[in-house]
Amino acid sequence: MQPAAAKFDTSSLLLALSRYTSAVSDMEKTILLPSLLRDVPSDDVWDCEATQTFRDLHGSYLMLKAIRNTVESSPVPLDDHNINTALNKTLEPLLDTDPEVLFHFHLRGLFSVMSDLTKKTQSLTKKYKDIIGVAN
Amino acid sequence: MQPAAAKFDTSSLLLALSRYTSAVSDMEKTILLPSLLRDVPSDDVWDCEATQTFRDLHGSYLMLKAIRNTVESSPVPLDDHNINTALNKTLEPLLDTDPEVLFHFHLRGLFSVMSDLTKKTQSLTKKYKDIIGVAN
To answer: How many CA atoms lie within 13 A of A28 on its CB side?
Structure first.
């Protein structure tokens, strides 16, 4: 079996994952005092409406780091409790779907969400610089 | 930026992708006369019902190879026409979902579909051996 590294270094999905972990790494290097992000409201609609709880920038910071850890090294949890009820209902019709369609659906979905999370990480890093008064 | 290879070689998703491409490679080495698979019906329900067209084992063989090519080197198509209408409707409620939930949803989904496709590839290789009368 050829090592995974040799086979996937040109994959766009892998590049999207790599770009994300680099953005989180930059965020960690920049944000030396994460506690300054506490109680600072997020501009993102989904931070308030989708989660139905208030998530401050500190919460976003922790979430972005946790996802990076999952991307880099965690096993994929097949009984993931992070899937909410609405998505569980969404999953039901997918179970009978042609695996080719399902493959493209999840590949595209994962690529897209990694791009969004990369932008969000860069935006959070910029907001921290604004808070401490460092020019971007 | 650290090379992607160094960061993701322990990722379970990457291992699932690697296992799949290895299974397709074995299939290609074994199936020297793919035309023998023509008009041989597939046992998989989704090959007939989900796609609403008859897909013989030769069709499955081509599909499994095409997915391997996408996994290994193709860019992720963001305007993918392989997403059917039912899945487009499924996508709509996902757009407002917390990206953390969406990330876990697609990570789990891609991991799961790669595992299914790996089993399917191994099963197709075994069926070819049955057809040509080689013991498994």
So the answer is: 13
